[in-house]
Design goal:
The chain has 17 helices and eleven strands. It has 419 residues and is an alpha/beta fold. β5, α9 and β6 form a beta-alpha-beta unit. The longest helix is centred in the C-terminal third of the chain and has 20 residues.
Length: 419
């Protein structure tokens, strides 16, 4: 067993300084010696067999159940090395990958009932959890870091401002009807209602998010301008001046891309603008990591642009702008992970130690996937006519300046989450 494990890991790990101690006490070191030493210990033979038979799934499970122990560094450091190799996937794991690729359409088949169940799995957790590591506005998507030293709260505010600017919510568009598909806890919708004077309809499949979003609208006196519904996007029949969707498209599933954009085209007025903000792959189509699919986002899938753009074209929508945000999500996840770990004892009181390790692994693996591999965030702006948005992008900067001035006039300084 030890020799087989050594052979396989040596064939994969060529970079970094990585030490493994087996359950029999044998120690191996892999990599080129660059960077600080990270070390793990495999406590059981089952953990070793898991890495051999299905590393994409079993590595995370072994960390969750304590049969993989990090002896030097953190699990984030371990994953930085593991995900920073020349090959994204170990050679011996390719058969499982091919099988999962063939089955991905079945796993991502998300009719209404299943879609709601998948959303509840992640978003209807104890509300205290998210308040411990998100910003004060509960933005659970990629922030927009205008400066490397920007705080998470300011970067999330910048993200809302950036999206509002791309939606072309100019003063003459006051009272524009906006649809927010996958509205989360309502932060973006409330921003658009308050600073753009828009009439916002937000939809979500999460009962927790639905209740909190409407409660926040009431507290801020915006219930007449921002309404949040517990509704599937496929069941909408209204028409909107603007459509925005942030961090929801990853839950649609590859089978439903055509339905999604056809519905968006149906709901968008002829002079309307839509902005889609979602995680994407810089390379071609792939599969959802099996550990993520099982424990974090069942039914989810991160698409490549080559899977998204053809569906947009077929829907009749015109792509007017694409922006790629590369390391912004890595920095966002770093903030989340650090905040989460600062409150790990509180999370353990809410759930248990296994849950803490699961979420630490999720946040660390996600961060390193953006930092070391091919994940990014894309923002795609769409219209139905060529003349709806300006022909140069400088209007985005002007609009951001206008929204920033409105914020300075109306907003008190944002408190940090937990204060």
């Amino acid at each position: 067993m030890d020799r087989l494990l050594q052979f396989l890991l040596k064939s994969f790990i060529s970079r970094g300084n990585f030490r493994v101690t087996t359950s029999r006490g044998t120690t191996f070191t892999f990599g080129d010696g660059s960077g600080p030493l990270v070390a793990i210990r495999l406590v059981t033979r089952a953990a070793e067999w898991g890495i051999i038979l299905d590393p994409e799934l079993k590595f995370g499970e072994s960390y969750m159940d304590g049969s993989l122990v990090v002896e030097q560094g953190s699990i984030a450091d371990v994953l930085s090395v593991a995900l920073g190799q020349k090959s994204e996937l170990p050679q011996w794991a390719r058969p499982q990958f091919l099988i999962r690729f063939l089955w991905r359409r079945i796993q991502q088949f998300n009719p209404r009932k299943r879609a709601r169940k998948n959303v509840a799995h992640h978003y209807d957790l104890d509300g205290r959890l998210y308040s411990l590591f998100l910003d004060a506005d509960r933005q659970y998507s990629c922030a927009y870091f205008e400066r490397p030293d920007q705080s998470l709260d300011d970067a999330q505010l910048a993200k809302k401002r950036h999206l509002a600017s791309k939606l072309r919510l100019t003063p003459d568009k006051k009272d524009a009807r906006i649809l927010d598909i996958g509205c989360g806890w309502g932060g973006l919708g409330l921003y658009l209602a308050e600073f753009a004077g828009a009439d916002v309809t937000g939809i979500t499949l999460s009962e927790e998010q639905h209740a909190i979003a409407n409660e926040r609208a009431m507290e801020r006196g915006l219930s007449d301008r921002a309404r949040f519904r517990l509704q599937d996007y496929r069941d909408l029949h209204d028409r909107f001046d603007r459509i925005v969707s942030v961090g929801m498209f990853e839950h649609v599933g590859v089978n439903h891309f055509e339905t999604y954009f056809n519905k968006a085209a149906e709901l968008l007025k002829d002079d309307g603008v839509m902005v889609l903000h979602a995680i994407g792959r810089s390379e071609g189509p792939s599969v959802t990591n099996p550990w993520i699919a099982k424990y974090i986002f069942p039914g989810g899938y991160i698409p490549s642009l080559s899977e998204v753009l053809p569906r947009i074209e077929k829907s009749g929508l015109l792509v007017t702008d694409i922006e790629i945000l590369r390391l912004h999500y890595a920095e966002t996840l770093k903030h989340w992970r650090e905040r989460f770990l600062a409150h790990r004892e509180e999370v353990e009181r809410i759930y248990d130690q296994r849950f803490v390790r699961m979420w630490e692994f999720y946040l660390a693996a996600s961060e390193m996937s953006f930092r070391e591999q091919n994940l990014m965030v894309f923002q795609i702006q769409m219209t139905k006519r060529q003349d709806v948005v300006p022909i140069t992008r400088d209007y985005i900067v002007r609009e951001e300046q206008r929204f920033r001035a409105l914020e300075d006039k109306r907003m008190a300084p944002l408190r940090l989450a937990g204060e």
